[in-house]
Amino acid sequence: MSAPVVDIASAIQSASINRHPSPAHDLNPSTAASTKKPVSPATSIPSDAESIPESALKPVPRRANLPPLPDMRFEQSYLASLQGAESWWRIAWITTRDQVALPLLQGMLWTLLLSGWRHWNRGAQFRGATLGSKVRRWWWDVNNWKIPDETQKAVEEKVGEVSRSFLKVE
Fold it and tell me: Which residue has the higher pLDDT, 83 or 29?
């Protein structure tokens, strides 16, 4: 039973992986600029020497071909993990893990991290003892800004003022 599974994975992998890519062919498709030849003085425009620019007589040589880019697609790691599968249950588990479970877990952890950061940032106050609070207080002092006084007494006074103005009690 394990031989057909390995054969299927091998067939899929061998059909999709180009093991020896050609830098001249696989980097980019050919264009009209690929077939043009540099200008040479012997075959160029028959004209007087003063009207031909120096750049046309001595063109800049073309760069050497770059090596092929490495294949960083998800498919390669997925097919590599499928090679060790002995049964169709193992293939289903690997597929579910790589296509569903791990992206779901990654998104959930990222969301929890951002939510925690937002909650922690919201709770940062001027009267704290952390380095960030000290830097914030220093910055407000340097700029001669009034540091907000959010003590319990100040909050109670604000609530009292709002309630008195709302109820118009004197």
Answer: 83
